[in-house]
Every structure is written in C-alpha cells, then in structure tokens.
Amino acid sequence: MTDDAPGKGAPDENGEDVTAPLLEIRGLSVSYRTRGGVVKAVRGVDLDVWPGQVTAVVGGSGSGKSTTAHAVIRLLAANGTIDAGTVRFGRHDLAALSEAELRTVRGARIGLVPQDPTVSLNPVKRVGEQVAEVLRIHGLATRRSAAAEAVAVLDRAGLPDAAVRARQYPHELSGGMRQRALIAVAIAARPALIIADEPTSALDVTVQRVILDRLQHLTEESGTAILLVTHDLGVAADRAHRLVVMEQGRVVEAGETRAVLADPQHEYTRRLLASAPSLTTARPRTPVNTSPGSAAPPDTAVPLVEARNLVKEFRLPRAGGEARTLRAVDDVSLTLRRGRTLALVGESGSGKSTTARLVLRLAEATSGQVLFDGTDVTTAGGASVRQLRRRAQLVYQNPYASLDPRFSVGEVITEPLRAFKVGDRASRLDRARELLDRVALPAATLERRPAELSGGQRQRVAIARALALSPDLVVCDEPVSALDVSVQAQVLDLLAELQADTGVAYLFISHDLAVVRQIADQVAVMRAGRVVETGPPEELFSEPRHAYTRELLAAIPGGRAPSPSTVTATVRGPL
Amino acid sequence: MRRYVVRRLAQAVGVLWAAYTVSFLVLDFLPGDPVSAMAGAGMDSGQPDPAQLARLRHEYGFDKPVLVQYAEYLGRAVRGDFGDAVSTGRPVTATLADALPQTLQLTGAALLLAVVLGGGLAVVATYTSRRWLRQLLLSLPPLGVSVPTFWVGLLLVEAFSFELRWFPAFGNDGLRGLVLPALTLAVPTGAQVAQVLAKSLLTALDQPYVETARAKGAGRWRVHLRHALRNASLPALTVVGLLVGQLIAGSVVVETVFSRDGLGRVTAAAVTTQDIPLVQGVVVFGALIFVATNLLVDLVYPLLDPRIVVAPDRRAGFA
C-alpha cells in the first residue's frame, strides 16, 4: 500500500535521507470521548509522506482524514486522544515526544495551513505580527528583524503589497489574502512538511486555484513536502503525487495518484470517483431533461419567471462625507421557463443570491421588473406577495441551520401547509408522509428531530418542505455546497427526479460550475452584478465566449487530472 | 469619531435628565416631606410648631405645585446648583464634594481588587490542566455573587479585626482602614468579572486562531495570554463598565457596615431624612459617573479590537 518507491526525489536541504519517507505514520488510532461514548475516528492508519511530494488524503466527512492530519502534530480537540501508533518524523516519534519537545517541531519543522482562513487568524493582531510570531517563537529573528522578515515571508506566500498588508488586521483582508497570510505563517520557518487541511474549501474557485498554485510552487521551489487533506478528488487529482483514500477511519487505498485514478482497486474509491462532479464531463441525465417537454408542460409563450433589467443598489457606510452605493445587481435580465432549471453561477459577491432574492421579492429592486407567470410582481404587495410565496419556495445552502432544531421533521415539512391553512391535521400528515417518500426518506423520519439526521438527510427534508405546497418555482441557493461529494450526487439526482415528476422549475444558485453542468438547462454566468454570458451548459462549457467564463472553467479542479479520459471511462454514473 | 462622541454626550445628557426626573417623581410620591421628617428628628420633645413648619416649607419651596417645584429645581440643577441640603443647610454640591474622595478611594480600590482578583482567577482557572483546581476555582464566582455584601463585611471584620487584629473594623483610617471595606465591595464585583472572563476565555480558546497559534509552536502561556485573553477581554470590559454603577450602590452598604464617611453614608442619611435636594444630587451624580465610565469603555473598545469602528452610521449599511 505504501511500500512503493518514491516518485521523484526532491533536493533536501535538511540533510535527510531522500530515499526514506519524511513522515511515516504506522498503526495510528485516534478516538474522541463524546457524551454518547468513545468514537474511534482513526483506526490503524498507515501513511507515508515523501520529501518534496504532495500527498493527498481524500475521503468524505467523518472519514478521519482531518483527524489523521492533526494527530501528526498532536493538535487534536481536547476530547481526542492518540490510542496507538507511531508518527515518525525525521528521527523522532512525534506521538511519543513531550509537549515541550513537540513545540520545537510545530511551526519550525511542520507548518499547518488551516481550513477556514476567515477565522484562523487572531482578529486583534496585525497580520505581520502573526507571521513574525513564528520567527520569534523559534528564535529565528530578533524583535527588530522579525517585522521585516515577516513582510518578506508574506511576499513569498504570494500576498501582493506585503508591506501594506503586514500592517493591516485580518478583517481588512479578503478570504484569499488571509489564506495567503496563513500560508506565510506555515512557511515562515521553512519547515520540511506542511499540513494543509482543506486549505481552499472555504474559497472561491478562482482563488482556490491561485492558492493551490502557490502551495505547489513552494513545494517545487524549496522541496517542502505537503500533506494535503481534501474532500475534493479533483483538487487531489490535480495536485498530488500520491493519493491516500480514507473511509470510516481506515485507509482503503493508497498509491500514486495516476495509478489510483486510472485503476481504482477499492469499491469506495470507485464510488468517490463516480460522484466527484468535477471529474465527470457529463452526467447521464434523467430522460425528461434530455428530451425537453416529455413530462414538463410545453414551452408556452409565457415564461414562469422573467426578470427585466433588474438593478439593486445598497448604500455603503459614508466615508469622507460622500454617500456611496454598491451596485450588487446591475441590469440583469433572465428568463426561466416552467419545468426547467436556470443556473446562476459566479463567485461570492457576484450578485447571484441577491438576484434570487429580488425574484422572490425578499428584497426590493432599485429598478427593473420581475414578472411571475406573466404578472408583474415588482411592486406587488400584501395578498399578491403572499400568493407568490405560495408558488415560489426556497432551499437554503446550509441544512444544519435552515431547519428549526425544536421542530420534528413532520412539523418542519407541514409548516408551509399550516401557514397557508391547507387541509386539516390528518391530511397534512399524509402529505408529509408522501413527501418523505418522494425524497426517499423512511416514514419513521417524521417523528425525528433535525439533529438526528445527517446533512444529506436534512437537505432532503428541506426539499420536501419546499415542495409541500406544490410550488411552480424552487430557488435552490447552493443546495449541495455543504454536503459531501457522494451525498451531493444523490441530492442532485433527487432534484432532477422531482422536476421530472412535478414539473417544478428551479432557479439554481451555485459557485460550482461542475455541479451546474449536471443540473441546468440554461446557465447565466454572473460577475460583479452583471450577467456576462448565458447559454445552455453544453455550449457554455465547450465554447465559452466570455473571458471570465473561460477563467472559471479553467479553475475547476480535476481539469489537470493525469488522465481524464481514463477516469471518465471508468465512470458509469452516480451510485 | 467626533460625531460619535458628541452623539454619546447628548445621550448622556438625556440619561441624566431621566435620572433626575424619575428620582424627583419617586421622592414626591413618598408620604411626608423633609421638613416634617427633620422636625420629627430634631425636636422629639414636644410638638413642632405648625407655623414654623409652614415657614420652613415655604422657604424651601415645598408648598408650591409639584410641576413648579420640578421646573425650578431642574432649572437650577442645569446650572450646577442643587440647592441646600435640608438636614444640614449646607449646599448639596459641597456636601457631595466633601464625601467624594473617600468613596472614590473605596470604589477605586474595590474595582482594582475586583479586576485583579477576578481576572486572575479566571485566567488561572482556564489555564490549569488540573480538573479539580479548575472546578474549585470556577465554583467560587457564583458563590461570591450570591452571598450578601453586608454578611461578607461582617465575616471579614470578625476574622481580620476582632480575631487577628490586622485591620481596623471601622473608620476612614488611611490605607489600613481601606483594606476590609474595599475587599468586601470587591467580592461580588470581582466574582462577576471572573464569571464573564472565564466564560469568554473558554470560548476564545476554542477558536480556530488558537489552533493556528499552537501550530506555530507557541507555548500555553503565550496562547493563553497573548491570543485568547485579549480577545476575551471585551465582554469582561463591558461588565466592568456596568459594575461601576454597582460599586457606587454597594458603597451605601459597605460604608454603613464599616462606619466610613463617604457618598454612601450621605446617601443613606439623605434617604432616611427625605432630604430631597441631597438625594437628587446623589442620584444625578451617580448617573454622571456611570455614564462617563461607560462612554470611556466604549471608547476603549476600538483599541482592544480593531474590528470595532467607532461612529457606525446606523442609517446606512447592507440589507
């Protein structure tokens, strides 16, 4: 499994044996004490990282990949313990070092790039100070020289205007810039190994690419090895020399990336490959979508939703006495037909969610028009807005936050029915049971609380709730972004199936082009409040006209997979 | 920034006015008036002369309609004149000015003790890895909040004055006389500081940036003091601002228990004799200190947390 020879050896400035792994994990077991008992998160993991190489650990949430990475430098949550195993790094077994000895390794020999850059920097300290701190702790700089060194390191991490940024506070930097600052923290002491725990999953796809490029560049430049933890097989395929696949705390497959992708041995790896949206070029769509009009009503003259020249401006806090406004949505026109899916794609801040809110009349447009089923609802009030609410529903991004934790699933699903006084208690429960069946959840779920369900199950409940009133339109705001890839595929399938059965139209918001490709009939690419390109996905993906669309497409991870043709050949469709 | 301060000052004036008005109304609703209270206290032998009382009432303006009295008092109060204390005849402002230094010493010392002891307890309790010590330390603040101040005072006097004879039991006798009253006053205050700071320290220690700091190789003290404490100090600072009001209120009990001169005792005396001008003076003065402290706290926030920008324009912003 981990016994084959290293790929290309990298120059090793630390004088270590390049023919031996830099990091050698053997039989690692980690458990967490929880209220419900002891949870074994990692069970007997073997894993090697070779000098100068990127080793990616992939798996779904709960697979133990992140715990494994953190166990290397023993930064586990307070209730986590290493039960067994060795973590050999250089000459030391990190699992057996004292806390004080370990501190000379952390930051100096092994750097960590954490998951969420928005919360991983100390908000009350200047960025430069936080980089300088590493140098100060390990005695690599004096109080005086540390500041200048920090700027140099920030520059090396790819942060533009490093000298200016160093004097700023984290909240004054964008997410991508913060992640570069955190990379600077990790590389400051020129460590031999960097542990990157989902370093880009909180970032936009184009920013993701810049960050990963930077990390890769650093590896090549200085021979630093990287242990990359990711849920995104596409990212792993692009970046890693070696791949380690984890499931339920165990390593199920490991080897050179090319070999694993081309010929996956384990059932779970195959499933992961099949459901990775970024690696599939086209999804076998449900018949109704490929042959429009079979079950959905024919394309009548009147579209379900028509937005004309929508503009939404927000007032910004005054600065220098001058009133400023932000044009979040700038002259957007869209058409969505019954039973179809229109996807809005763009990065955070591109105005896609605001556009959806305007369509749903959850926000007032500054100018422009919204027509719902031929009726102008832009300025409608009272009863007609309520009527619109009944015909247009919303599925939110985060299924953990969008379900009331005090409601039972039955109450969650029947709430729209109660709000519109549809039927009596018994008939509402019948409807809830039917809807649960629709979204493939057992009827017993009715009595359970959202907290007892997994993320995928919760999103199914949210979808059932959205469908309760048989709406004509469901706005899906990043409905699968918070879910594991394998679960993503299931939920996308479900959405397509429900559309085929009920003829509902979707306004589908996503930052993930790969997801959009699987579900949309029509795609609108948004940037800075404007729609820069629209078209059917096949066209958009094969012949993007706008430069920004091309940039987005190029940034999709998995595009640089060693042999995409071989990969897709093994893909037979989702689960 | 300047607009913010101006707006906050305007708010402060509003608070002072409200404090004045409410205390005026409450005092007016109380049965009796200061003149009869004074007469009853001063001349317990024989009946007071009704004519003399009426003359006194007229002199102080107590015979006028309430609204007129209110307008007159308020008009003078705005110019800093709170009239004369009925019981002593001395100007209210002079009485307060005499009592102030003693009380400032007491509350200042108590605040210092509360922050140092309460903050120290919170830091040690959240730092220690010994479970029993943490549990023990964290169980102290709720105890400190719930025991009555006068009882703590009596216990301290019993132990340190009567048994050990380390500190005097009463009086305004220099620094040694300050120790026991300040400690008494600091117990409930420090307990609240400790509770809030310990809670927010534990929250801060759970934040991802703490993991980043540990991954840098930072030691536990560095993580605790340089990273967590500063982030955790904001809620504690808010509480300190509010506790200043509590300290002034607490000085009434403590100064009485320890027979110390000061604002607290002036207040207690003024209330028992229904000395309306004096009570009004105390109320407005207390409100002034409270408002000033909290304005100061608000201005310190941005220094501790760069994310807080003073002078937010509330009318604008994102939907």
Automatic annotation (TrEMBL), chain B:
InterPro entries: BPD_transp_1_N, MetI-like, MetI-like_sf. Residues 100-301 form the ABC transmembrane type-1 domain. Keywords: Cell membrane, Membrane, Transmembrane, Transmembrane helix, Transport. One of its GO terms (biological process) is transmembrane transport. It is a multi-pass membrane protein. It is found in: Cell membrane. The keyword Cell membrane applies. This is Peptide ABC transporter permease. It comes from Streptomyces fuscichromogenes. The lineage of its organism: Bacteria, Bacillati, Actinomycetota, Actinomycetes, Kitasatosporales.
